[in-house]
Write a structure and sequence with these properties.
The protein is an alpha+beta fold. It has one domain. It is built from 2 helices and 3 strands; from the N terminus they run ααβββ. Strands 1-2-3 form a 3-stranded antiparallel sheet. It is elongated, with a radius of gyration of 14 Å. The chain starts with 9 loop residues before the first helix and ends with a strand.
Length: about 70
Amino acid sequence: MKTQTIISDPEVMVGLKEASIELDFSALMESDAAGSSRFVNGGRVYFEANVFGYQTSSFTTKGFFD
């Protein structure tokens, strides 16, 4: 399952302002229930995020939402 958000606010792009991305956790649960993914592990949701943009060639982070 992939979520993509395009941020075009110049202040966000140069680090003067924060942005947020909304995730639909019910879609993760449905995908796991259908056997299409395994996001939920021990009651925690695994994520990976990649960022590409102004003065950023790539930034990757991963972890768990508790």
